[in-house]
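Annotators were shown the component list below and the corresponding predicted structure, then asked to write short factual statements about the assembly.
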Amino acid sequence: AEVAARIAGLLATAPLAERVRNGALVVLAGPPNVGKSSLFNALLGRERAIVTEIPGTTRDAIEAAADFLGWPVRLVDTAGLGESTGRLDALGQRMSRQYQESADLILECHDRDPATGRDAPRVLPVRTKSDLGPAGNGELRVSAVTGEGLEALRRAVVERLFAGGVALADLDPAVTRERHRVALQRAAQALDQAKAHLKVAGDPVLAAHHVQGAVGALDALVGAVDVEEVLDRLFATFCVGK
Ligand code: GDP
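Structure shown to annotators:
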């Protein structure tokens, strides 16, 4: 039970720690022509996406690595979801939806109407082109032209995605690799199965088998030699078990 609790504690660090290692996926979404590509470029600090006044200019999804207050972000500009007028638009919009599904955070851009009302934990409404319109009602307002609100937006993104990240870095070890997380999950599962067999009605041999499975998973994690290998060496050297 003690080991299972420590494994659970380590596993709890995985979502945030993997995000720190791989970069958080932040996707710009919203109707065509609201200024997504302009905001993408402004946040990156360089002209990466093509900007025009023609709706539907961005048909592909463009991804670029950015750094928000020192935190790693994978910023994605996507095709706006709206009327699709052709095969290319349809493909771009499908890719857009896929990105939105796997996003850690969606920046829901709009330049006029109030936010679409999508108020999920993964959605941050952003009012674009703030240099053109009247003041909004407390929502995040940005202008790619004047630069207004960009720093506040970066800060808001970091708060949403990396809250607790500083504490994480200072205290316990954290699980930053998928391979490590998978090994810990296997160990946790094996210990769970062992526990069932440690009850009165359980089978001690099966309990031992599952505990050994957990040890194997943890050995793989720390790079130790596997049990079979140790046994092979023992038998070869000492003729044990004859
Ligand atoms: P997207 O289709 O959502 O990616 O929008 P774009 O970034 O291509 O921009 C659409 C149009 O809005 C272009 O003509 C831009 O010059 C203009 N635009 C974008 N951002 C701003 C902004 O912050 N202020 C103003 N005044 N115009 C902007």
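Statements collected:
1. Residues 32-38, 51-53, 57-58, 80, 128-129, 131-132, 143-145 surround guanosine-5'-diphosphate (CB under 6 Å).
2. The chain has a mean pLDDT of 82.
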